[in-house]
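Supplementary Data S3. Sequence and C-alpha cells for construct A.
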Amino acid sequence: MSEFDLLPDGARSELETLNHLRIEVGVFGTDDTYMPMIASVNEFGANIKSKNGKYLTIPTKLAGDHKASEFSDLFFGTGKNGGHFLGKENGKGGIDVYFWCVNEVHIPERSFIRSTFDENLGSWVDRCADWLVEVATGDMSAKTMLEKLGNVIVKDIQAKIRAIQEPANSPATIERKGSTSPLEDTGHLIQAITYRVVEL
C-alpha cells in the first residue's frame, strides 16, 4: 500500500485532475483587438509608424480622447524647434496645439507580465505547495487551487503595472495624462488583466 492509497475519497481524483488543467494569465483577445495590442506593445516595446499618412498625430491634453479627424478647424504648423503640429489660434494672439505630428513613435519595453513572473515565481510555488496539501486532504478542489493561484498572479501583475516608473513617459505624454506613471492612464490595462483555467 502506498501513501497515495491512503488519501481521502476524491482527493486522488482531484490530484489527477491537476494533470489535465492549465492556468493562463494575461490580456486575452484576438491579435487585432485593442487591449492585447496595448499589452503587447508595452510588454515588448515597439516602433510605431503611420499606416495611412505621413504623420502620426499624438494628442495633447486639449485634444482629450478625440482624433484629429474629428476637428475641422485645425491647421498644420511648424514650431520654433522644427516640430510639426496641428493647432488653432486661441484668440489671444497665440496658438493652441492639439496634436503633435511625428513620423514615428518609439514605445520602450516596460515588461509587467514577464517581470512579475520572474519576481514572484518562488512565492507562487510556495503557495501552491500549501494548497496542494489541502487538495491532498480533500479540503480543496484542483480547480479552486488554480483559481486561487490565478487571482494571486493577477493581483501581482496589477501591482507591478502601478509600480512601474521607468522608462518614464515623454514630457508630452505626462502633460496629456497628468501622470508620470507609464502604464496607468484610463485603468483599462489593469482591468484587462485576468486569468482562465483551461482543460487540456
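Construct B, processed identically:
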Amino acid sequence: MTIPSRRSSAIALGLLVATLAAGAGFANSGTATQCGIAKSTQGGMLALEGTILSPVAVSGEYRFAIQSSGNGGSSNISQGGYFTANANQATPLGKVLINAGSNYSVVFDVTAGGKKIDCDQDIASLR
C-alpha cells in the first residue's frame, strides 16, 4: 500500500511534534525531570535511595552504584537496569543500606528520552 506524499508528510510532522512534546519534560526547567538521592535511617542504618520524578511518563535505564567504607569494612554495590516511571509520581530506582557512620560515594545516573541525567545530588524530597 502506498501512502500519498501529503498524507505521509502530515504523519511525519505529527510524529515529530509528538516526539518533541514527549521530550519537553527533559528540556524545560521548572517542568524538567528531577532525580537525586534521598537519605534516611532505617534500624540504625543509612538508607540511600535513587529516585526520579517526571512531569510526563518516562522509561529508560539507570545506574545506582555505591562505594562505602567504615569500621565495619567496605562494600561496592551496583544496581541498574530498565525502568518505567508514571507522570508526577516519585519512583524509586535503587536502594541500599549501609552502616550509618560510613564514608561513601554514589554514582546515580538515568538515561531516558535519549538524554543522560546526572542524579548524584542529595535531595530532601521530590515534588
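The first helix runs from residue 5 to 27. DSSP finds one helix and eight strands in the chain.
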